[in-house]
Specification:
It is built from ten helices and no strands. It is mainly alpha-helical. It folds into two domains: 52 residues, Orthogonal Bundle (Arc Repressor Mutant, subunit A); 142 residues, Tetracycline Repressor, domain 2, CATH 1.10.357.10.
Length: 206
Amino acid sequence: MASTKPEAAVNRRRQILDAAIRVFARQGFHACRVSDIAREAGVAYGLVYHYFESKEEVLNELFSERWSVLLAAIEEVDARPIPPRAKLDAVAGFIIDSYRHDPELMKVIVVEVTRAANSFGRTHLPEIRQAYELIAKIVSDAQQAGEFRRDVDPMYASMWFYGAIEQLLSAWVFELLPAGDGEFDNAREMVVETICGGLERGAGGR
């Protein structure tokens, strides 16, 4: 019997986190209360506090959990013996597919964390910057290999690349652009072509 308790606790914690995603996406982080999360999860109000000290901790965990997956994915892509354009295409695909498969979670991360410069975004700047640095490494390695032009700062290129994708996510979140499998694939191709096309021109330059 004792061996099932940890598993039950993990499942209950996951239940609360999943409910929080729906509540944050529907109501917005600042407008909701812990009681809203409890109601959505179908658990007692006090049980949320048993696992989390506050709704801030819930949001922090949701972000850290998803962002660590992104960081691992970029590192895995960079380790592949493929051209830099293919690496950036794979990273763009991973991020866009994350929205395709879990739009509510990605809405929460974009709206409540990465674009919240004065609150959660600032708290998580080290993790956010780590993603920029991993993408910049792909660019820098390609520059050293003569495949990308060398007169562009890799970190700037990284921010242009990720910023373009994040802007697309925001457009889908706020329904400014149509969202569907065809649109997702076209958007990925356009971002990669725009960024890599510019980086590949005059690759042998200074």
